[in-house]
Amino acid sequence: MPLIILDRDGVINQDSDDFIKSPAEWEPIEGSLEAIARLNYAGYRVVVVTNQSGIARGLLDIATLGRIHNKMRRMLAQAGGKIEAILFCPHGPDDDCECRKPKAGNFTTLANRLRINLDGVPVIGDSLRDIQAAQSVGAKPILVKTGKGEKTLAAGLPDGVPVYADLAEAVNALLDIE
Ligand SMILES: [Mg+2]
Ligand SMILES: [Zn+2]
Hints:
Blueprint: E1 3-6, H1 32-41, E2 45-51, H2 62-78, E3 85-89, H3 105-114, E4 122-125, H4 128-136, E5 140-144, H5 149-155, E6 163-164, H6 167-175
Parallel strand pairs: 1-2, 1-4, 2-3, 4-5, 5-6
Helix pairs in contact: 1-6
This protein binds magnesium ion and zinc ion.
The site of zinc ion (ZN) has 5 residues, from loops.
């Protein structure tokens, strides 16, 4: 089964400069849940890899993050979709961990767990660090303009990274849906 890796904030749900700290603050971007369902239907395993430094900053705890992810999974199930795994980095920018993107620690953990190679695996994100993490493991980065995407695009992207309006459009291109 092919694999696809998605960033969470700004790709699946609306991003916030104040962080997503509660289930109530987690709101899907229009069409994103249905796009994930289309990926599942086309045979993709969908995994989320996300930086959640709000935990290190004391803005939310792991239990609350779990409740946020329960909401995401519940709403996704209603749309007919499923996320196989969520790998998150709970650390802050100064913690010097290996799992905060642009570092690829969570990507390599995933590859080891599933015993797969990430060569050419699509990675959809809205920030340069998503693109960089994907490139560092030989995956295929794709930018969406939702979330921080417009800003990321304006600041300059590495050559050859495809750009789409949102997750729905990126998925349709990937699946060759008109
Ligand atoms: Mg993001
Ligand atoms: Zn980390």
